[in-house]
Peroxidase
Amino acid sequence: MYVPAVIYVLAASGVVQAFQLPDASILTRLHIPSFHNIKRSISDVLSPGASCPAVWSTISSELTPLFLTNGQCNNLARQAIRAAFHDCFNNGCDGSLILAEECSRPEDAGLADICSELPKIKSEHGVGMADLIQFAGAHAIRTCPLGPGMPAYVGRKDSSAPAPAGELPPVNGSGNSLLAMFKAKGFTATDLAALIGAHSVSTQFFVDPSKPGASQDSTPGTWDVTYYRQTLSGTAPFTFESDKNLAAQDEVGPVFKSFVANQLGWSNAFVPAMVKMATLGVPGGTSSLTDCTSALPGGTQKRDIKAAPMGARKN
């Protein structure tokens, strides 16, 4: 049974307040934790996400209206998702995308708005840039209708040293070369097939300037599997050559095809692949970071997809 976090907090508070504690000086002499510390310790155990700094909940509340327009995820959300990938793939998740001004590179074209917005949030709240980029990416994924319940972790180290240029996957790359690039980073064919599905909410402006804003499926404001079906059928408004190549690649292709009309299957593959992406270059991975998933808005969970009427699922 699901119990809201606030109930746990109140319960923990009530338990502590029921104790008849002596005066603080006696507690100190007896080496017994103070009332405040006992209360905090119990709350930390019983309250999910208690170790996540409260500032991330504040940031989350600020990001939601930035990422939604008329109930759909918008261009800033798309940029946040793309930025999360671009900061991590070529040299690990270190914030250098913004701190080293990599956003001005041709390969990062189209990220200007998010690269301008996130430094303002960092300055106001004093959080790390690497963490903020990944938190914003996870938040944007959850914000999109049907977006899966992405987790978020904080505690990465920032770096202002620029990552090597020219190491991001090219939009015209062959299926074999793209898979080799991802395998070199520790990803599988399944990971790649799932990650490329983020193009469900993407639009293009620079690959073909004659078609600015062209989307990679007909529902760019919704995180759904329409992308897989329309890429395979050739009916998408605009398809990158690399996506066509991956859909036909020997290892990636079968997985790519399996996500057609399979929202749950895609979500189950995408989330762990994106967590792997969000911890590239982080010693110890998620075990060395603080879980701040509790600060994110609610996303589509497995039980929600299973319970949704067939007509409500995006295929």
